Amino acid sequence: MKIAVACDHGGFALKEGIKEYLISKGVEVVDLGTGSQEPVDYPIYGRACAEAVAAGKADRGIAFCGTGIGVSIAANKVKGIRCALCTDADMAEMAAKHNDANMLALGGRRTSVGKAIEIARTWLEAEFEGGRHKRRVDMLNEM
Ligand code: RB5
Which of 34, 40, 47, 83 could bridge to 75 as Cys pair (CB 3.0-4.6 Å)? Predict the structure, then answer.
């Protein structure tokens, strides 16, 4: 599994923590920046992560900013992306099972590294249920 990660300055520390976790689990990580806490603009990074996933350069993506809101808005503008901003593991499970979310957004100023690992692990382990959810995801993909 290859996962693209990207963040703004508000998500930098959390991105580094999650990257370490993913690498320890044998996941190939494509880091699209930013590389420090120097202020940058979150739309650039949410979009870069989403475009990597949409282009098939990564299987999934995780984007980070202060709240997770900005990068999720940016990512969801890219065709084919279903980016879920999650603040707990239950949301992450539903995002995978019902929404077939191919991207996760996390808030570096809202979510601890420990909690974020729990969220990411849950999202990666849960499987899309298909069935009635497929019809709805197909509708999203048409938009
Ligand atoms: C940056 O200060 C902050 O606005 C950004 O990280 C993010 O939270 C936006 O949604």
Answer: 83
